[in-house]
Specification:
With 272 residues, the protein is mostly helical. It has a domain of 161 residues. A two-stranded antiparallel ribbon has the order 1-2. Strand 1 and strand 2 form a beta hairpin. Helix 2 packs antiparallel against helix 6, helix 7 packs antiparallel against helix 8 and helix 8 crosses helix 10. The two termini are 35 Å apart.
């Protein structure tokens, strides 16, 4: 299960999405979220699904990786679907049993909500984390939030913390998996028993994980001090961010897709 968590991982590549300016990627991610939540009909969700599949195809990220990114939220998707099925009322009754009544509107709404979660996770990961290195992401966040530095906001330090946190997620997951394997070799059981028993079984994992995390943080701080790191003042960049023609073209495509989604919603209101 832990190996299926791909949040924070970067897959190097030479695709168009990899080459996009990281600042544009952050803006496009926000734009993509707006597009997903603007979809309100099956037809408009189809447009968003085509966009997401195109992003996956262009980025050359394998579908296995995308499926792994969805596996950790499987429980959330099932829970969301069940809640919408049994709590959404309507006019067309599918079946009724005792005090439980399921409407076709509830089933349709549950499908759309699950589809929205799938598209949201898949698209944002492909646009941003899977195709953007932590260094480029740090630089982009700092450049986008630079106007806030005029009012005293430490934008460089904020961007650095975000990047380090994102970068160390896969490392902590790998460390947790190693600790669990070591504890299982010593006879620990994490899969049987009740909720309280499983919670107690996590204690031998959390303690060494916290110790390892603090050790890594101390080593990272020492390494940054040895390299005379003192914040963003006076620092130069190896690669200066510059917008290219492809950045404008992709941005226009996203704007056109948002307009298409809104137009499809107005034309297919009966499918909402």
């Amino acid at each position: 299960m832990l190996k299926d968590i791909t949040l924070g991982q970067y897959f190097p590549g030479n695709s168009v999405i990899h080459k996009l300016d990281p600042r544009i990627k952050i803006i496009l991610t926000i734009f993509y979220i707006v597009i997903v939540f603007s979809a309100k009909s099956l037809a408009s969700f189809g447009v968003v699904a085509i966009l997401t599949l195109a992003l996956i195809f262009v980025s050359k990220i394998s579908f296995v990786t995308i499926l792994k990114s969805l596996k950790p939220i499987l429980f959330i998707m099932i829970f969301t679907a069940v809640m919408n099925i049994f709590w959404t009322s309507g006019e067309n009754v599918l079946f009724s049993f005792w005090k439980i009544t399921v409407y076709s509107e509830g089933v349709r709404f549950a499908i759309l909500m699950v589809l929205r979660l799938v598209l949201l996770i898949s698209g944002t990961f492909v646009i941003l984390t899977y195709t953007t290195s932590p260094v480029a992401l740090t630089d982009a966040i700092e450049r986008l939030t630079k106007p806030l530095s005029k009012i005293g906001v430490p934008t460089h330090e904020f961007a650095m913390m975000m990047s380090i946190a994102l970068r160390f997620i896969p490392t902590l997951i790998e460390e947790t998996d190693k600790i669990m394997c070591a504890q299982k070799a010593r006879g620990a059981d994490f899969e049987t028993g009740g909720l309280i028993h499983r919670a107690k079984a996590l204690v031998p994992i959390l303690i060494p994980l916290f110790i390892s995390s603090f050790r890594r943080a101390d080593e990272l701080a020492a390494a940054m001090e040895c390299r005379l790191y003192h914040g963003g003042d006076g620092r130069t960049r190896l690669k200066v961010l510059k917008l290219e023609a492809r950045d404008y073209i992709v941005s226009l495509i996203f704007i056109a897709i948002l307009a298409a989604v809104i137009l499809v919603n107005t034309q297919f209101e009966a499918l909402i």
